[in-house]
Amino acid sequence: MDKKTVGLSDALRNKTAPKSFTKNPIQGTKFTIAISSAKGGVGKSTFAMNLAVALKFLNHKVGILDADIYGPSLPKMMSINEKPKSEDGKSLIPIEQYGIQCISIGFLVDKE
């Protein structure tokens, strides 16, 4: 017992290794910014909306996706009362509001 070595297990080393990300994971985009939190009611949608408006104000092309199945708020926050159209029945055409392309799960479910 002369020499002691300290190190990480292979499992822990794999978990802590730097992750590699796919460049442009959404076809046709230059950047993707994801806003998430496990906690509800912390302002994710409000922050995402303000960020989208600020980026549009800086003359960037902006789209926003609201995938919150429990409380989609994009339609209400953006004052959108219409349903998106579909040319092929398989995909949705984003609704443009304030120069921002908008898609929300809220467009597909009842408001109740």
From TrEMBL:
Cross-referenced PANTHER family: IRON-SULFUR PROTEIN NUBPL
Spans through the membrane: none
Any one biological process term the GO annotation gives: iron-sulfur cluster assembly
Entry keyword set: ATP-binding, Nucleotide-binding
Pfam families registered for this protein in UniProt: ParA
Natural source organism: marine metagenome
Name the record gives this protein: CobQ/CobB/MinD/ParA nucleotide binding domain-containing protein
An annotated Gene Ontology molecular function: ATP binding
Nucleotide-binding in keyword set: yes
UniProt keyword annotation of DNA-binding present: no
InterPro entries registered for this protein in UniProt: NUBPL-like, P-loop_NTPase, YlxH/NBP35
